[in-house]
Amino acid sequence: MASAAPPLGPQLGQRGLNVANFCKEFNKETGHFKQGVPLPTRISVKPDRTYDLEICSPTTAWLLKQAAGIGRGRASNDEIVGKLTVKHLYEIAKVKSRDKALQHVPLENICRNLIKTCRTLGIEVQYHDLDPVELKEFLVARKEKVDAQLKELADKKAAKMLRTT
Amino acid sequence: MFNRSLASVVNVQVRSVSSKYPRPTPRHFKRRWFEAALKPELPPTVVTCIPPGLVKKEHTEKSREYSDVELALSNLVRNWMVKEEFQVMAVCQFLPVPGRTLWFAKNQLRSKNIEFRSYGNKIMKKVFENTPMSSLDTVFVGSNAILLAKDVSAIKTILQETDKLNWLEPLALMVKDRIIDMPEARQLAKLTSLEDLRAHTVQILGQQVAQVSISLDTATRHLPSLLDTYTADQQKNE
Questions:
Q1: Which single residue of A93, A150, B40, B140 has CA 20 to 30 Å from A53?
Q2: CA–CA distance, B191 with B193 (Å, rounded to integer)
Q3: pLDDT at residue B109 tops 90
Q4: Chain A closest-CA separation from residue B125 CA (Å)
């Protein structure tokens, strides 16, 4: 949901756009999305203060993380944070293929890129369907691990705040 | 006293100083003193003088060699080109262009069944090595890209599309096993379809055959009259 508050308002104002109108149009175009979905947007401002608005589908990383049911990617190289099947990737690729930048790109290439992103995020891609029992066990174990990691981070932060020297 | 001074110099050495600044010459006397003190402990440095030509020769020889990755890539490209059965290939001069523009242009070309590839000249020369296409090596100088299409009628599309893009200039075209220069390609592109050319060839060949039969027919038609004339002349003389 776009609003005229910083950082968007001042940035658009600097370029001479009517911020209120822009927000109205953006919210109208993205009304069918849930709040909090990151939508990559490209605005090209023309000299006569009109603009082209290109709203892409949600980011690949966000879609993959949502599909895998995880909140954060891997923190170390050998960490596996989630599991997905090729069917999930196919569906995500179909969503992404509607983007302007991915028009006429073969679905196979998009799927390959998705697999690369999965690797970056630490999501394991498998050919066969996921076993629900196994997945549940994995997710529970993973949640415990993430909680421990987050707690450690919070402790570190608190220690840093308390440090006087 | 020496130890104390050396300690201070060592401290100076440990300090991290950017290597981006030029070292003062001559070096500070403390530094020279330090180096002189350290010299007996350090291994002797051997200064060798390599003639500049030799360095260049080594460099060029090294750049001509193919690494395993390059060989694998060239094999991959060759196999892909054979598998996809491309019939038309245009070698183009590829000028620098923003990434986003290039990406959209590639997609646009793909929508018209033209594949844009830019692997580098070294790889392309290796791909065409020991094939009749190795005569294209002379074109692979500077920054090049290739456009590939599966249909012969794509010559026209390639020329139309490259005319639109000011950063892509076709240098030579290869259609099946023939290399075509640009003026010839432009002439071919003017035809509505390459079927016209085929029809034209058939027509020319048909004309030749017809001409031969007419010529033979004329001779056979003239032969009786000639013989008649000859016999009449003979009879008159007798």
A1: A93
A2: 5
A3: yes
A4: 26
3-state helix, strand, coil in chain B (%, to 5): 60, 10, 25
Range of the domain at B12: 2-41
Chain A partners of B112 at a C-beta cutoff of 8 Å? none
Closest chain B C-alpha to A34 CA, distance in angstroms: 29
B110/A105 CB distance under 8 A: yes
Per-residue pLDDT of A28-80, as tens digits, reads 888 788 888 888 888 888 888 788 888 888 999 999 999 988 888 888 888 88
Choose, out of A104, A107, A113, the residue to mutate when testing the contact with B (most B CBs < 10 Å): A104
Residue with tokens 């599991």: A83
Two structure tokens written together for A122: 């630490």
Domain identity same for B73 and B126: yes
- Give tens-digit pLDDT for A87-124: 999 999 999 998 888 888 899 999 999 999 999 998 98
Find, among A152, A11, B157, A34, the residue nearest to A23 by Cα.
A11
Rounded to the nearest angstrom, the minimum Cα separation between B94 and chain A is 21
CA-CA distance, B222 to B137, in Å (whole number)?
Answer: 59
Q: What is the mean pLDDT of residues B122-144?
A: 89
Number of residues written out for chain B: 238
**Number of folded domains in chain A?**
2
- Which residues in chain A touch residue B104, judged by CB atoms under 8 angstroms apart? 101
Q: Per-residue pLDDT tens for B30-71?
A: 999 999 999 999 988 888 888 877 878 888 888 888 899 999
Asked if residue A45 is part of any domain, the answer here is yes
B164 has a pLDDT exceeding 80: yes
Strand partners, B180: B173
CATH of the domain at A139: 1.10.10.250
Average per-residue pLDDT for chain A: 85
Most B CBs within 10 A among A103, A108, A113, hence the mutation to make, goes to: A103
- Say how far apart CA B143 and CA B95 lie, in whole Å: 7
Residue of B nearest to A103 (CA): B107
Q: Within this chain, do residues A141 and A64 fall inside the same structural domain, yes or no?
A: yes
Domain assignment of residue B132, yes or no: yes
Q: How far is B99 from chain A (nearest CA, A)?
A: 12
Domain with A24 in it: 8-55
